[in-house]
Design goal:
Radius of gyration: 22 Å
CATH topology of the largest domain: Rossmann fold
Helix content: 25-40%
Number of domains: 2
Strand order of the largest sheet: 3-4-2-5-6-1-7
Order of helices and strands: HHEHEHEHEHEHHEHEEHEHEHEHEHEH
CATH superfamily of the largest domain: P-loop containing nucleotide triphosphate hydrolases
Bound molecules: adenosine monophosphate
Distance between the termini: 34 Å
Number of helices: 15
Structural class: alpha/beta
Number of strands: 13
Length: 433
Amino acid sequence: MSFENLNLPEALSKALQAAGYTEPTEVQATAIPPAMAGKDLMVSSRTGSGKTASFMLPALARILAARAQPQNPANRQRGPRVLVLCPTRELAMQVAKAASDYGRFVPGLRVATIVGGVPYGAQLAALRGALDILIATPGRLIDHMGSGKAQLGQLEMLVLDEADRMLDMGFIDDIRHIAAATAPQRQTVMYSATFAGTIGGLAAELLRDPQRIEVSAQTEAHGDIEQRLHWADDFAHKNALLDHILTDRAVDQALVFTSTQRDADWLADRLHEMGHSVASLHGGMPQGRRNRVLQGLRSRHLRVLVATDVAARGIDVPTISHVINFGLPMKEEDYVHRIGRTGRAGRSGLAVTLAERRDSGMIHRIQRFTTQRIPAATIEGLEPKRAEPRPLPPRVAAPGHKPGGKTFGPRPGGKPFKPAGKVFSKSGPRPAR
Ligand code: AMP
C-alpha cells in the first residue's frame, strides 16, 4: 500500500513527502478512505500508530475541496469546518503541529488551538478571524462557547481524539454540549482504545452508521521497547537504583514517571541537586511553563524529565531513550502509554520499572493487561536484599475473555515489547553507541 492509493490531493502528498513518510501506517490505510468518503468512524489505534494523520489528512482534504469552490457561499463562513477535541493541552499542541505540518502546502490554512491554562486574549483574537481547523480541550472551548465567541454551527467534521481519556477526565457532558452546538449533518470520527460501556453509549449518541476500525498493534510506529523490572527493598534503594540508571551514558533522554505532582517536583529537585539537567512536568503547572519544559526537552537542554501521567500524554520526542517508572501508574493501561513514550520513530527504547514489594499487585495487573511478563533485572552492587515477590498464579480466563491487553495479543515472555512490528523511521535507526 502506498500513499498514492489513497488519492490524496497533491498539496497533502507533497507534505507527506516533505515529512519523509514513504507509506501509510495501517490506521492511515484503513481509516483515510472511509473518512475521505465522509463516513463516521470508531477507531481504536494507539498513539504512535500514526493516528493523527489518519484524521488530519481527510480533514485537510475537506478544506482543500472547499478552497477549490470559491463561489460557494459556505466559504464565507467564519467558524471552523473541523473541530478536534483532545483530552490534554499537550495532545492538542501536538495535533496542532500535525495540522500545520501536513497542511503546510494548503494555501492560507487557519488553525487555532484553544486550551486551558493560557490567557484568553490570544485565543479570542484567533476566534475572531476566519478559521479552518479548531483544536481544543473541552473545558476551555465551553468557556468560549458560553461567551458566544466560539461558533460551531457550520462545523463539517468533529474529531474526538482519545475519547476514552476525555471520559476518564470527566468531560462527557462537555462533549455532549459541544456536539449539540454543531450541525447535525456533520461527520464524526471518534478515536478510543475501547468502545465498551459508557464510551460505546456516547458513540451511539454522536455517530451515524459508523464504521468500526481496530488496528492491531503489529503496525505501530515504534521500534522495540525492552522492558525491565528492578525490585527495590525500600524507597532509599529505589532512589539508588534510579541514580545509577541515570548515570548510564546510554541514556540519551529519560522520562521518569512519578505517581503524584508532589513527587514529580520533589524528585526533579533532588536530581537537580545531583547535577542533572532536569525539570518536572505536571498538570499543576501553568501552561507557559509546561511549554517551556517541553521545548527544553526537544532542544535537548533537558536530559531528564520527571512527569505525571496526564502531563506526559502525547509527548512525542524521538530522543527519549529511557522511560523509568519511579512511581507506578494508577491504571495498568497507563503503563502502556508510558512506555510508548520511548521507542518512537522506529528507534529502540528501554522501559525500566522500579517497584517496591507493595507494588507487586500493580505489577501483576500490568503483566496481565499486557499479557507479558516484565523480566526482572538487577544491578551489580544494588541487588535487593529481600527475595523477589513470588509471581501470582496465572488466572484462568473466563470463556470469551480476552486478556486485558486490548490493543495487542499475547506474546512470549521476555521478548522485547514491540507495539510496532513494522518499523518506519524518518531518522533511521539509532546509531550504535
Ligand atoms: P501519532 O500516532 O499520530 O502520534 O504518530 C506517531 C508518530 O509517527 C509521529 O511522530 C508521526 O510523525 C509519525 N508518523 C505518522 N505517520 C507516519 C508514516 N506514514 N510514516 C512515518 N512516520 C509516520
